[in-house]
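Service request form, structural biology core

Requester: graduate student, group of Dr. S.
Request type: structure prediction, single chain
Budget code: on file
Notes: please return the result as structure tokens.

Sequence provided:
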Amino acid sequence: MRSNSQSECARAKPSKRLLARFLLVLLAGLVSPCLTLGQSEVSQEYQVKAAFLYNFAKFVDWPSAAFANDKAPITVCIYGKDPFGATLDDTVRSKTIGARGFVVRRPKSPKDMAGCQIAYLGGSAGDQLRDFLSIVDSSNVLSVGEDPHFADQGGDIQFVMEDGKIRFLINVDSVNRAGFKMSSKLLALAKVVHDPK
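Core staff response, request fulfilled:
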């Protein structure tokens, strides 16, 4: 099954091949960009998502107010059910972006997310989604989630599965409210969406 997925990637149109190559660079060799996920590969799904979280940080500029100083780490907070286990910690361990290292925290309440630069809400969050977004909306926190309504409700980046592959949506209205500058390379890989009218 995996060989079929890889051959499909190899036969893809030039733009899709370019996208696959760019994803390979983004993920720094941690996973294949043509990875197809099955029921037994949930841990691989979150390896991919952990690599994306690290790489999102490389392609986003935060407002200076988001950090205590020039060397403060990029803090990734996982709120609610943690789908990563040790995978996210392992992915960012010893990694740096400029002078900044990484710290992973798991706050018990959205109110405990002060000091986070990336906040992740896993799964179909239901009522947690509203509370989570009310804390991070219009703040200097890049919100990332996988709830099917995450981007529609004002989240910044939403993971989606398409044809067994992990993709992501970026709500540019939410991103603009938070004062982020996102690389055009990152936006080119995403499906860009807006707040519902």
